[in-house]
From TrEMBL:
PROSITE patterns: EAL, GGDEF, PAC, PAS
Protein name, UniProt field: PAS domain S-box-containing protein/diguanylate cyclase (GGDEF) domain-containing protein
Domain EAL intervals: 500-753
Location of the PAC domain: 97-148, 274-326
Keywords for the protein's UniProt record, in alphabetical order: Coiled coil
Ranges for domain GGDEF: 358-491
PAS domain residues: 23-94, 198-270
Length: 753
């Protein structure tokens, strides 16, 4: 049994060995396949094993040891690098690399190898790469042959397409020629129809156009004139013979030369078109403006043989241009020359006067109360008034003189060729006489006066600018002297203007540089002889011109609105001084401050006053604010709101310069004032019966309204006695004291106690 089992085992072993040998031979045939390179190599690059085909292809000698062979002699280095990179990152994946670079064998042949690589490990964990290369040379050669065949086929197709396109173009050309012949026949028919329509259209255009069409044959001197313009001129035929002479007879004599010059310029090819504006006489004898346009034809020798064009009636446009030109040089409201025209005439007159040793005069006329009329009755009434005044001024001048409107209510007059000042005086007096009678407009009788400033050439200036400026300065001087008069310029006025300009320039820095100070003038109670109030009066200590009176700088401060900040400084300084006097024990009088209309027009004025009183801790009953009647006229709502607020807190409101305006009574009914101050103009002439009567009436009115009445400008005992008899409550003036510094003013209080 054991022997049988052993025999059976031996048989099975032989079969296994035989099977293994066969399998080994089969695998050997696979490994030794002549189309496959097999190389096993370690990661250090050394070859572990390769098959015979690899040996044959690479040309490795049999006796060489595999340890001396590196894989880089078989597989390209770039593939080896990629294999190593991917084997480091991916351990379980095979990587296929295709190398199409030719490999040169030892027999000189070129082949293409595609490598397949996989990784493996032995029992000891060493890593190896099995690289299998397949010879794809035949495949590459087949691809190349296929590409060459495709290229040849493409070239053949392109050649066939070119031939086909040439045949197609020939066919299209034949078809186009056939279509062109057909289109030519259609075009000939269309042109025949168009010609017929064009003839009809031309006839309609010629008959319906407002322009006059003309066609002049220069060789025969005959011209065709369209129907409408034939009727305008009065021709009896459309074709005019001897056209040049005939047409010239209808041109305005002043325009003939211009027409001929423009026509010759075009016929001589100096201008691309014939273009000319001129006047022609119509059949009814009137002249109209036309715009004549045309284009000439020349023969081969350059001779003009024909010219055709049109005539357009531009009379309306010319009238508009004339109107616009007039408006550019003349004031549309008064029809007086504008400033530019005046200056041109002034310049010419001055040149003539300089050449012939003559004189001329410029009068600057300004209406005194035009703004009041314009504001109260409206601009429409004001415009009518200006028109009438312009006509009156023109009527009282010579034809050689010029009057121009240079501002809203300002006129300037040029008197040329005057012999003496008497001539200028006569004209100035005639102008003032114009205003003696009222001017009636819209059922109103308007009383207007004028102030006139006069400057002479060459006495008052050598240039137009200097003469005008000096006449303007003289006009303001005339206004300052009471209006409704005339004043000649003199050098003193120039000094005054320069002084005013200096004030305007320096006033802005006066407050910043602490150049202002206050003086105080007492108001004395007539019954007790005590000081009832101290009026704060502003003074300016100019660094170069010394003390400047408010008479000179207050109007400029109001004009520039610097009076707002200056007035606030005065109010704060006066209140602070009053607080200081109170602290010294003097409480029997108040302090009085003048307030400008510009201050009262500020919506927050009352708030500013309250803040100053709170800041200084001064009781409002110690403060009086003096306002002029003019304040009540301007910005009434804002002014009254401020005054009411101040009255509520206890500030006293006094009307200053009472009697110099005509509007106070209306506002005295609406607002409860605390007192009146009679203007010094009435006090200075109180001996005159009428002035005494006015003072009596003002005091009576004040007392009836339970108001205290003060007279300012008291300078003599006679004036004081008269005021006492009239019942005046308080007086102020040089008779008692001039404005004093604070320390001297308080001594007046001490004396009156």
């Amino acid at each position: 049994m054991r022997i049988e089992k052993n025999m059976s085992f031996i048989e099975e072993s032989k079969k296994s060995i035989t099977y293994l040998k066969k399998k080994e031979e089969f695998l050997s045939r696979i490994f030794e396949n002549k189309q496959m390179l097999i190389v096993v190599w370690a990661l250090d690059g050394k070859v572990v094993w390769f098959n015979r085909y690899t040996q044959a292809v690479i040309g490795i000698a049999v006796e060489e040891q595999t340890e001396r062979i590196y894989v880089s002699s078989i597989i390209p280095k770039d593939i080896i690098s990629r294999i190593k990179e991917h084997l480091d990152d991916i351990e379980d994946r095979d990587i296929l690399y295709k190398c199409e670079n030719p490999m040169v064998l030892k027999d000189g042949r070129q082949i293409y190898i595609m490598w397949y690589n996989s990784n493996m490990c032995d029992d000891e964990g060493n890593k190896y790469v099995v690289s299998t290369g397949i010879d794809i040379t035949d495949l590459k050669n087949a691809e190349r042959r296929l590409e060459e065949a495709n290229s040849n086929l493409l070239a053949l197709n392109e050649e066939l397409m070119v031939q086909q396109e040439e045949l197609s173009e020939m066919n299209e050309e034949l078809m186009a020629q056939e279509e062109q012949l057909r289109q030519n026949l259609i075009e000939i028919q269309r042109q025949q129809d168009a010609l017929k329509r064009s003839e009809e259209r031309y006839r309609l255009v010629v008959e319906g156009a407002s322009d006059g069409l003309w066609d002049w044959d220069l060789i025969t001197d005959t011209a065709y004139i369209s129907e409408r313009w034939k009727d305008v001129i009065g021709f009896d035929k459309e074709v005019v013979n001897n056209y040049c002479e005939t047409w010239t007879e209808f041109i305005h004599p002043r325009d003939v030369k211009t027409v001929i010059n423009n026509l010759h310029s075009h016929l001589e090819k100096k201008t691309p078109f014939y273009l000319c504006e001129y006047r022609i006489k119509t059949k009814d004898g009137r002249y109209i403006w036309i715009l004549s346009r045309g284009k000439a034809l020349w023969d081969e020798e350059g001779r003009a043989i024909r010219i055709a064009g049109s005539h357009t009636d531009i009379t309306g446009r010319k009238q508009m241009e004339s109107k616009l030109k007039y408006m550019a040089f003349y004031d549309p409201l008064t029809n007086l020359p504008r400033r530019d025209v005046f200056m041109d005439r002034f310049k010419a007159a001055m040149a003539d006067a300089r050449r012939n040793g003559k004189k001329l005069a410029v009068l600057f006329v300004d209406l005194d109360n035009f703004k009041t009329i314009n504001d109260s009755l409206g601009h429409h009434t004001g415009d009518k008034l200006l028109k009438k005044i312009a006509r009156k001024l023109t009527a009282c001048l010579r034809e050689s003189d010029t009057v121009s409107r240079v501002g809203g209510d300002e006129f300037v007059i040029l008197l040329s060729d005057i012999i003496s000042i008497d001539d200028t005086d006569k004209v100035a007096n005639r102008i003032l006489e114009l205003f003696n009678q009222p001017i009636k407009i819209n059922n109103y009788e308007l009383y207007v006066t004028g102030s006139i400033g006069i400057a002479l050439y060459p006495d008052h200036g050598k240039s137009e600018r200097a003469i005008l400026k000096n006449a303007d300065i003289a006009m303001y001087k005339a206004k300052g002297k009471g209006k409704n008069g005339f004043q000649y310029f003199d050098s003193i006025m120039r000094s005054e203007v320069e002084f005013a300009n200096t004030i305007k320039r320096d006033l802005g820095l006066a407050l910043e540089k602490n150049q202002f100070f206050l003086c105080y003038q007492p108001l004395v109670d007539v019954r007790t002889g005590k000081v009832a109030s101290m009026e704060a009066l502003l003074r300016w200590q100019h660094p170069k011109k010394g003390i400047i009176s408010p008479f000179h700088f207050i109007p400029i401060a109001e004009e520039t609105r610097q009076i707002i900040s200056i007035g606030e400084w005065v109010l704060r300084t006066a209140c602070r001084q009053k607080k200081e006097w109170l602290n010294m024990g003097y409480s029997g009088f108040s302090v009085s401050v003048n307030v400008s209309v510009h201050q009262l027009q500020q919506p927050d004025f009352a708030k500013v006053v309250c803040e100053i009183l709170n800041e200084i801790e001064l009781d409002p009953r110690h403060l009086e604010l003096e306002i002029t009647e003019t304040v009540l006229i301007k910005a009434m709502d804002t002014v009254v709101r401020n005054l009411y607020h101040l009255k509520e807190i206890g500030v006293k409101i006094i009307i200053d310069d009472f009697g110099t305006e005509n509007s106070s009574f209306r506002y005295m009914q609406k607002f409860n004032f605390d007192g009146l101050k009679i203007d010094k103009s009435f006090v200075s002439e109180i001996k005159v019966d009428v002035n005494k009567a006015i003072v009596d009436a003002i005091i009576l009115l004040g007392h009836r309204m339970e108001l205290g009445v003060t007279a300012e400008g008291v300078e003599t005992k006679e004036q004081l006695d008269c005021l006492v008899k009239c019942g005046c409550d308080k007086v102020q003036g040089y008779y008692f004291s001039k404005p004093l510094p604070p320390d001297e003013a308080i001594r007046m209080v001490q004396k009156s106690v």
